[in-house]
Amino acid sequence: MMEQREMETMVKQAYKRMTRLCSRGEYCVFDIRQKLRGMELSEEGEEAVVQKLKENHFIDEARYTRGFISDKLRFNRWGRKKIELALHQKQLPGEIIEQAFMDFSEEELSASLPDLLKKKWPTVTGASAYEKEGKLIRFALGRGFSMEEIRRCLEQVKKEQER
Q1: Among 25, 93, 150, 163, which one is least packed by beta carbons within 10 Å?
Q2: Residue 1 confidence class, pLDDT cut points 50, 70, 90
């Protein structure tokens, strides 16, 4: 059994390490807990570090969620469904996720889809236009866009390709 003083020292060291980590980038509670598990802290120690990080605003799940959505829209060009799934995998509360999505308009959420489909169109091979469309739809669904968005954008892309 570990001594009380040893445990306090480990918690302080873990807190110091996590503050350095959090000051370099955004992390959610799930990410921090995973890192703390590798440090062999007790559950009470883990909880103490997480609480202290929250109190000192090193961890803010709403801020993390907004940044995550923004990054995935801009850089990874993901759709709403894929982003939601990734956030749920990080065990973020549904209310925080919904609130963060309210900060983004529907246009912002689907802005990258037309460009993705335009770039993908020439590279997709298919025996018929129907087969080609099916492959594009599966590609866009994999990126997390809704069928309604995909259909709308696909019609635009097809019209532009016919010109």
Answers
A1: 163
A2: low
Buried b vs exposed e over 41-66: b needs ≥16 C-beta within 10 Å?
A: beeebbebbbebbeeeebbbbeebbb
Instruction: For residue range 103-162, list pLDDT tens digits in order.
Output: 999 999 999 999 999 999 999 998 998 999 999 999 999 999 999 999 999 999 888 877
Residues 61, 11: Cα–Cα separation, whole Å: 22
- From the list 74, 80, 160, 154, the residue with the least C-alpha distance to 117 is 154
Q: Are residues 10 and 46 in the same domain?
A: yes
Please give the Cα distance from 96 to 77 (Å, whole number).
21
Residue 118 structure tokens: 């335009």
Q: Look at residue 126 and give its three-state secondary structure.
A: coil
Q: What total of structural domains would you count in the chain?
A: 3
The residue range of the domain holding 155 is 111-162
What does the DSSP 8-state code read for residue 121? G
Q: What is the pTM of this model?
A: 0.91
